[in-house]
Amino acid sequence: MKKNMGWKELWHGDSVPAGTAKEFQTGDWRSERPVFCAENCIHCYFCWIYCPDSAITLDENKKVSGIDYRYCKGCGICDVECPTKKDKRAITMEAERK
Ligand code: SF4
Ligand code: SF4
């Protein structure tokens, strides 16, 4: 298996060895992308806990710093779980620009 191969290079119905999810960059699945606004973030870590792709990034102080779009597949769970209020959202989903 090549390093950082795309998921489209897998055979239909193929399986991959356990512990290799990091090798498959699923960012091109997205039709929408989460956009992070640091000034509205209250550092609750809900997005980091719930993201199924570990695509929420932390900075050197262990605070949420953004999204790793190589792996974010745009599921929107981080947006749903983020507790910030409507007019001060820390994460909002936007249409993906291809
Ligand atoms: S949209 Fe989904 S995959 Fe992307 S950062 Fe949010 S929870 Fe993770
Ligand atoms: S869920 Fe929202 S408020 Fe909480 S750390 Fe993530 S972006 Fe910040």
UniProtKB/TrEMBL annotation:
Gene3D superfamilies, per the entry: 3.30.70.20
GO molecular function: 4 iron, 4 sulfur cluster binding; metal ion binding; oxidoreductase activity, acting on the aldehyde or oxo group of donors, iron-sulfur protein as acceptor
Alphabetical list of InterPro entries matching this protein: 4Fe4S_Fe-S-bd, 4Fe4S_Fe_S_CS, PorD_KorD
Residue ranges occupied by any 4Fe-4S ferredoxin-type domain in the UniProt entry: 32-61, 62-96
Keywords per UniProt: 4Fe-4S, Iron, Iron-sulfur, Metal-binding, Repeat
Cofactor(s) the record lists: [4Fe-4S] cluster
PROSITE patterns linked: 4FE4S_FER_1 (PS00198), 4FE4S_FER_2 (PS51379)
PANTHER family reported in the protein's UniProt record: PYRUVATE SYNTHASE SUBUNIT PORD
Protein name: 4Fe-4S ferredoxin-type domain-containing protein
UniProt source species: candidate division WOR-1 bacterium RIFCSPLOWO2_02_FULL_46_20
